[in-house]
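Support request, please re-run this one:
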Amino acid sequence: MSKVIKWGIMSTAKIGQGSLIPAIMDAVDNEVAAISSSSLDKAKEVAAKFNIPKAYGSYEEMLKDADIDAVYIPLPNHLHAEWVKKAAEAGKHILCEKPAALNAAEAEEMIEFCKQKNVVFMEAFMYQFHPQHQRVKDIIASGEIGEVKVMRSAFAFYMDPSQWGTNIRTKQEMGGGSVYDVGSYCVHAIRDILDSEPAKIFAQATMHPTHQIDMLTTGMMEMKNGTRAIFDSSFEANFNAQYEIVGTKGIIEAPRAFRADIHNGEAILIIKDANGVIREEKLQGHQYTLEVEHIAECIREGKEPIYSGSKTISNMKAIDAVYESIKKGTVVEL
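Re-run finished. Output below.
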């Protein structure tokens, strides 16, 4: 019988309540043992809602709980580094929301600290655990669409202007901005699906005049393997969370690439050949649950996640280059 991994949730954030807590409860041999908040009343309220045994009025108090094996950190971006290190110091394994840090140097420091403390760390890009992405890689490897030339990716949603300045995604000091929030998925998917790192990046953004965060960003990447990629992220556009791979003999479209979970786990791949003939493939998978089960397996077996710390650092280096390009208005070489 496998060891049950007991989780502590750091904060009562919506993503925890809407996605991760249910995923942990659904995952085999995992359970939510505690939840913490700066407000004990809020922690107790969510604990009662999900029948979580323990509620704590501070993150520090929960980290002292010897029964907790691992923690999930969905705190605002600027707090990730601080609490990852505090959790690691307490001997807790860590699933940290994306982006793991505000820059690559911060990510590298966090990840090295986790290694020193012998705890498993993984950044929570949940979408990658959906089986549709392995299927995309298999189709590419089969040669069906020929040589891959271009990948396009987009992740956007419309944020009501009434939220600008109050939503943490729009607060510069808290790591706000569309690239950090949703563009990071596009950057990650491009690197993962094309199995290559960017050699050059150029990006432009529409900046909020008051809050000075990128509301809409478009970017281009020249990859080290010779392929090219285009991406966009936005708080000002209709919901869109997809990617497309264009080859010399066909095209693969993944219209539910990042949020298959809102379709009850069902993804659709659309494959077009050179003659315009189309076929669809449907794949099922609950990406949050699969993410939890993967890191739990790594904790039990003492192994590194498939999405390793070094891959997190590489993704942050690419995001750093996107923001540097926006700031300087030039192509950035990596």
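Residues 5-124 form a domain with the Rossmann fold fold (CATH 3.40.50.720). The chain has two domains: 5-124, 127-289+316-333.
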